[in-house]
Write a structure and sequence with these properties.
The structure holds two protein chains of two kinds. Chain A is of the alpha+beta class. Chain A has four helices and six strands, in the order αββααββαββ. Chain A has one domain (7-90): 2-Layer Sandwich (Alpha-Beta Plaits), CATH 3.30.70. A two-stranded antiparallel ribbon of chain A has the order 1-6. The longest helix of chain A has 6 residues, at 28-33. In chain B, helix 1 (15-26) packs parallel to helix 10, helix 10 packs antiparallel against helix 12 and helix 15 packs antiparallel against helix 16. The chains are: A alpha+beta, B alpha+beta.
């Protein structure tokens, strides 16, 4: 396989059981003050993105529950928990 | 409210939690494993290898029933540069002994382990998340899961590397960005025949391979590759402190690795079937909890910091399972006396200290520092390529190895630094 795949494409290969409530939330006030925006770099699923105004937006669907964003954030902006039992990422080849 | 009461509740159905439950159930203790994933294995991720000695010791007949992908007969380390690379292979041929590690999918392995645990009489409920541990007079008495109380004499915390519950109750502090790495993994379906041909192995033989250098030099990380029966797993492990700075996105770095000409050739014709990520402890001995116990509870596996990276081998599943076995032994002892006190459970710490887990972590206590030397990921792989490129690129007049080394070292690293790093390797790896 010689083609590079976008993260969006790769995420379509992963099974997720999405719960309606996000299991991770970010504090927009803290994120607005943040200059580093580490979350946008560390998330392996690329779920933290910068919108046109340069603000961080976050989508919990597609989360591997790895915890990298929680450790990387220096502002304590990431309120991190696991999805409710039975929900979230559902790996076959972990 | 449920009035059911168990002897032991284990929070988390990974290798450590299931091992604990296995040894508890063997001794007849009523054990409940609560797993948040929709089924066992759904949340587990690792690179791809398990060392067998632990299973040989305690799981009769496992070699005939466990989901073994391939026996690792080829150990490779590659130093990659942008357009060339150096690979060292240690290979076991034919009948040499030492079927001592195998590749696997952890998801499938824990699912098998779960069957063995249930065969011993323990109960496993997947799809349920533990929200709280119930404490009375500083002694754990059970858990709250989905709003329901479930009581037990002992609680075993096997929550893995994301230590949310442990932090909540002050068993440990949150990991720092220097203490953990993010491991990102891709699973490529290549088919048995292509794997056998490309990797020069027979049907049951497998490869375990590490990568240093390009493109992971940018983030000072390492890469891995394991051959399964029909699949190849490939991935990158990058410390959070390095992952979060610079211009590189972790979602792209693993693709950069897969696109390296060396790996591209190996995986040509394959299809990506899954993509995942998980945290990995990088702390070694420093990350092992000083006090993995308290009134009514014990902490096992990654949550207790049992993972060891020696620089050549990664001891994850076997050490996690051994810590579970020791926790079970502690509980069986205490349970006979009806004792749930902190003092009774401190026996776990004693067992752990005397065990291979703690001894090995202590033996390799300088390794994390050695492995955090940035030159291992940047300077040295490129230098190695450079030396061999100079030797093997023939332009009439041959070059002596020493000349090549001298040329490659120039502008890269001083002799003093080189000697210092070599000296550090003595205690480091």
């Amino acid at each position: 396989m010689s083609d590079r795949l976008s993260v969006e494409k790769r995420l379509t290969l992963v099974k997720f059981v999405i719960h309606e409530e996000p299991h991770i939330t970010i504090d927009p006030e803290k994120c607005d003050k943040c200059v580093e925006k580490y979350c946008t770099k560390v998330c392996p699923a690329g779920l933290y993105t910068l919108n046109e105004e340069g603000k961080v937006s976050f989508n919990y669907e597609g989360c591997f529950e790895c915890g990298a964003c929680r450790i990387a954030c220096t502002h304590g902006s990431v309120k991190w928990s696991y999805p409710p039992g039975g929900y979230g990422v559902y790996l076959q080849f972990g | 409210m449920s009035e059911e009461k168990f002897d032991v509740i284990v929070i988390g159905g990974g290798p450590a939690g299931l091992s604990t439950a296995y040894f508890l159930a063997k001794k007849g203790l009523e054990t409940l494993v609560i797993e948040r994933g929709p089924e066992l294995g759904a949340k587990n991720v690792f690179g791809g290898r398990i060392y067998s000695y632990f299973l040989d010791k305690y799981f009769d007949g496992w070699r005939n029933e466990a989901p073994i992908e391939r026996w690792v007969r080829s150990e490779r380390v590659s130093f990659l540069c942008k357009e060339d690379g150096v690979t060292i292979e240690y290979r076991k041929y034919d009948d040499i002994d030492g079927f001592d590690s195998f590749t696997a999918f952890l998801s499938k392995f824990v699912s098998w382990l779960g069957e063995r645990v249930e065969n011993e009489g323990a109960s496993i409920i997947p799809g349920v998340k533990v929200e709280e541990i119930i404490f009375e007079d500083n002694v754990a008495k059970g858990v709250v899961a989905e709003g329901e109380k479930i009581l037990a004499d002992y609680v075993v915390v096997a929550e893995g590397v994301n230590t949310l519950l442990s932090e909540k109750y002050g068993f440990r502090r949150m990991h720092t960005p220097e203490a953990v790495a993010v491991g990102i993994k891709e699973v490529v379906k290549l088919g048995k025949n292509l794997i056998n041909e490309r990797f020069s192995v027979s049907d049951d033989e497998g490869v375990a391979q590490f990568f240093l250098g390009y493109p992971l030099n940018i983030v000072k990380g390492g890469g891995f590759l394991y051959t399964m029966k029909e699949y190849v797993t490939i991935g990158a492990v990058i410390k959070i402190e390095h992952a979060r700075v610079g211009d590189t996105y972790m979602r792209e770095i693993v693709e950069d690795l897969r696109m390296h000409p060396y790996i591209r050739r190996l995986l040509e014709g394959g299809t990506l079937v899954e993509y995942s990520a998980h945290l990995v402890s990088e702390e070694g001995f420093g990350g092992l909890l000083d006090k993995p116990y308290g009134g009514g509870y014990l902490i096992v596996g990654d949550a207790a910091g049992t993972l060891l990276n020696t620089g050549f081998t990664i001891r994850g599943v076997d050490f996690a399972m051994e810590s579970g076995r020791l926790a079970a032994e502690t509980i069986v002892n205490a349970h006979e006396k009806g004792d749930t006190s902190e003092e009774a459970l401190s026996y776990y710490k004693k067992l752990l200290d005397e065990s291979i887990v703690s001894k090995a972590l202590r033996k390799f206590r300088n390794t994390p520092k050695f492995l955090s030397n940035e030159r291992l990921y940047t300077t040295y792989p490129s230098m190695l390529c450079d030396v061999l490129r100079r030797i093997y690129t023939v332009d009439e007049m041959p070059i002596r190895a020493y000349e090549a080394l001298k040329e490659a070292t120039k502008d890269r690293v001083s002799l003093i630094t080189l000697l210092k790093d070599l000296w550090a390797a003595r205690g480091g790896i």
